[in-house]
Structure formats: C-alpha cells, structure tokens
Amino acid sequence: MLEGAKLIGAGAAVRTMTEGSSNTSNANGVPIPIPGSTGIYEDHPGLHPAVDERVVEYQAGIREQMSELMRMDGEHPEVVAAAERVHGESDNIAFLQGLLEDLRAHGRESEAFKYGVPNDAPLPGGGNPAGSSGGVDLANGNEAGSSAGVDLANVDDAAAAESPLDQFGIHPILDLNIGEYYVSFTNLSLFMLLTLGLVLLLVFVVTKKGGGKLVPNAFQSLVELIYDFVLNLVNEQIGGLSGNVKHKFFPCILVTFTFLLFCNLQGMIPFSFTVTSHFLITLALSFSIFIGITIVGFQRHGLHFFSFLLPAGVPLPLAPFLVLLELISYCFRALSLGIRLFANMMAGHSLVKILSGFAWTMLFLNNIFYFLGDLGPLFIVLALTGLELGVAILQAYVFTILICIYLNDAINLH
Amino acid sequence: MLEGAKLIGAGAATIALAGAAVGIGNVFSSLIHSVARNPSLAKQLFGYAILGFALTEAIALFALMMAFLILFVF
C-alpha cells in the first residue's frame, strides 16, 4: 500500500510536470495547445485525434506487459484487473509512458507491478506462501495475482455463463493423471460411452435369441432401415469390385454411420452434450479413415497408386503443377471431412442457443407486447430445431457417402 | 485497437457467405430445372441436390470457423 501511495505520488508529480511543460509538443511530436489558449483540444481533450488513441495504446501495452509478467493470458480477468489498478484509467500520456517503461525495465521488481499485484493480499487457499517478499517466484506471483483479481473474476464468470459457446465446454468428471498424461473421464467421454451403449443396446435387443423375426417390431425396423440404407450406399458408390470384396468394407462404414448418427441426434436432446461438435473427435475419425483408405489404395495398386495424382491425358509440361494440386486436394480431403462435420454441429447448436436465449430474455421483459411477440422467436427456434435434426442426419449421411466416394477413388484410381 | 481489428476481421470473414448463397441457389435452381425437364427422376435428383447442398453449406461454415478463429484464438 505504501508503494502504491508512493507510485501515485510519483504519477501525480509526473502529471503536473508534463502539464506544466507541455506547451510545445508531446512525445509523438503532436502539438499540444498552450495552457490559457482557447484551442478546441483544451476545452475538449477527448477530441484530440492523437491523444485518445495513444492513451488506449499505452493502456493496452501495460496490460500486455502485466500479462507477460504474471504469465497469464492477456484476457484473463486477473490480468485486466491488475492492469487497471496500475494505470488507474488515467489518460495522461506521460504517466502511462512512465509506467510502461518501469514495467519493461524492472519487470516483477518494478513499482508498478508491485502496485498492481500486491503481495500482501489475502490468499483464498490459506496463508501467504513462503518467499512472498521476493515476488520473483513464479507460483507465488501467480497466486498473489489470482487473489488480487478474485472479485473481478467472479463477476466475469457470471457474465461468461451467457456465452453461446459454453455448451461445448469439456469438464472433468473423474480427475485422472497417469504420469504426465491427463486422462480424466470427462463429460465428452461420458456422452461417447452413452452413444456407444445406446447403439449396442439397440443391436442387442434386436438380435436377442437369434433375432430376425419375420414381422419386425419398431427396434428391428430401425436397425434394418439403417443397415439397408448403408448397404445400398456401399453398393451404389463403390464400383468395380465383386460383391464379396466390396462387403469387406461394409462393417466399418456401417459403424461409422451409426456412431455419427447417434452422436448427432443425441446432441439434439436439450442440456446434453454434442460429441461431434469437437474437432478433436471429428478430425480423429476423419484422419484415421483417410489413412486407412490410403493404405487400401497402396495395398491394391502398390506404387501404381501414385498415378492417382496425375489425371489421364494431361500434357507433360502441366504435369508437375497438376501433381502438386492433386496432392494438396487429396490431403485436404481428410481435413475438410472432419471440419465439415464439426463446423455444422457447432454452428447449428450455437445458433439455436443464441436464438433461444433471445426468446428467453424477451419473455421476461414485463411487457405484454413483448410477451405476445415472443411467439415469433419461439417459432423460429422450433423451426431451427427441426432443421438441426435434419442436419444431424444429413451430416452423418454426407460423411458416410464421402468415405464411400474416397474409397471408390482409391480402389478404381479415377 | 486489437479488439477492434478482430471485430472488423470477423465481420469481413462473413463476406464469404455471398459465395455460399450463390452456390446453394445454384444447386436448387438446377434441381428445379432438371425436375421440370424430367419429372420421373425427381427422387434420385433430390438426393444429389441434398448432397450438393450439404457440401456447399459446409464451405459457408468454413467461413464461420475463420470468424471464430479470428475472434477467440488470436
């Protein structure tokens, strides 16, 4: 606190000093009106084109420097709070410049840093850690910072709870560390297991006691529908093979389709979690499938598979460029396959969340017209949910049909 | 400064939607043309059109992804 007082004193001194001598120009070379003149900038300092911008720049610089020194993200509420304590929302250029230079020159030992991150602040998790007097210890600095900005962090959490992207957060349910690896059981794993359990249960119910009843019940119809659908897809898309060889690929494709279908549809249940809205999952799927398809291609054609990269009948001078282009487009398939699914799922769910948040807020505005008018957004949300259900099925289908097309390319070498 | 630039960048990324709009319009206008010429193929063509629609829409979503990257990653 004493240091803070000193610092404020120094800042005030600097301020008076610059205000007294600022009759020529500031550091940027922009003339500042002489005190006593009736210049418009003096009457309305906010109008000065250079000053306002530079103040913001310096304040951002201080925040950046603080985030570096505190070893935290620049957007972190604690960093923002500490930076605000340091510059105190001042619009005095010289004062801000002095602070920034102090931070740059002395780092964690600087007056400004100590003022922004007080060492003697009470810690939430117990007493002061040892060695807090030095203020150079990494863990210590972080802890002090976290306690200093704790109020603001709470406020920010409350505000952040409204973000439409919150629904995609991965939270650990069981914390697990094996060696250095973090292998917690998260809500992502839970919902993936749920999907798997659901699919397996469905198949188990249908095939119980031999299954295959002549008159199918609802579950058997569903499974038969999915099976028929994928079988037709494989038969139509993959050509040039006898039925037996073709059907070696069928189980893999069927499982991919079923898994994606159930993941996507499960995500449409309110308050559940969409597994396929993470490119961790979709890219893992698409890359492994892509590698598998490439292996199949090499297995069937050996090194002749490289002729895939050169379309037939291309003039020789064009060949190098075309090979490069084809190679890029071939590799990009893996990426686009995963990102398409991920982006569709994420965009759809965020959209529904944003619009339903809008309808929810409108409902409680205590105004009868808004209350009745809320039917509009409500119906839009309803329609979008229907659209999302369609997209969930469609994207599983698109993913599967693209696998079939790529597999066909690898087998028949266009 | 950086915040403002981010917002401008994210807004500019949505310009890509123009292309996707043209693409989706093209897919369905072609579907209507084709079905008008040969109504008996309607069912088969609709399947292709839906596939084309999904692929075109995905391009628009790449733009959305860029906007998110600009806003939240950098």
From TrEMBL, chain A:
The chain crosses the membrane at residues 181-206, 247-267, 279-298, 318-339, 351-372, 378-407. It comes from the Eukaryota. It is a multi-pass membrane protein. The keyword Transmembrane applies. CDD domains: ATP-synt_Fo_a_6. Its main location: mitochondrion. Residues 18-28 have a biased composition (Polar residues). It is found in: Mitochondrion inner membrane. Residues 124-134 have a biased composition (Gly residues). This is ATP synthase subunit a. It comes from Zea mays.
